[in-house]
Amino acid sequence: MKAYLLVNSVVLLILFTSACVAENPGLAVVRSLEEAFNSKDIDATMALFSDDATVNLLGVGSFSGKRQIAEWLEGAMHSFGRVEFDQIVAEGSRVTWVWSFYDASDQSLYVSFEIEAQVEQSRFRAIDSGVPQSPKKSGTPSQSD
Fold first, then answer.
1. Which of 17, 56, 83, 107 shows the greatest Cβ crowding within 10 Å of its Cβ?
2. DSSP 11-43
3. Neighbour-count burial for 69-104, b at 16+ CB within 10 Å, e otherwise
4. CB of 108 within 8 A of CB of 102?
């Protein structure tokens, strides 16, 4: 009986999770961007952006349209080993997450951005960031110390 309940619970969890992903395409687009970037697949990455998309990353630059975004992303793909997306929240067409870039040489955290994006028809329309957060270096006291 316990095994039956456990199996039913797992099935319900899978169905609920699948329904949540299906209900919000923004979540799927964000996960696809992470996967395409880490695969260094610029074509798959750019397929996730609308033709008139914009990307504004404080301290990095502003990019309008697929050509400018592709140029920036190709450079970022070569400069960074990988990215990680955490704390993803998708509500309607608005998606927020933390986008962390890792150094290509030693895989240490290089910089993170809090991101807010607008997704329309399963494509990014706009990506905007807050102030970039550099990782705390070992041996560096925090402001509260």
1. 83
2. HHHHHHHHHHHHH-HHHHHHHHHHHHHHTT-HH
3. bbebbeeebeebebbebeeeebeeeebbbebbbbee
4. yes
Nearest Cα to 90, choosing from 32, 27, 28? Answer: 27
The domains found in the chain, sorted by start residue, are 2-129 (3.10.450.50)
- Asked whether the whole model's pTM tops 0.90, one would answer no
pLDDT tens-digit readout, 24-77: 889 999 999 999 999 999 999 999 999 999 999 998 999 999 999 999 999 999
58 vs 65, 127, 133, 139, CA distance in Å? Answer: 18, 11, 10, 27
Q: What is the pLDDT of residues 88-115, one digit of tens each?
A: 999 999 999 999 999 988 889 999 999 9
For residues 110 and 80, the answer to whether their CB atoms sit within 8 Å is yes
- Could you say which DSSP state residue 145 is in? -
Strand 109-120 and strand 94-103: the pairing is antiparallel
Nearest in space to 26 (alpha carbons), one of 70, 88, 101: 88
SS3 label, residue 76: helix
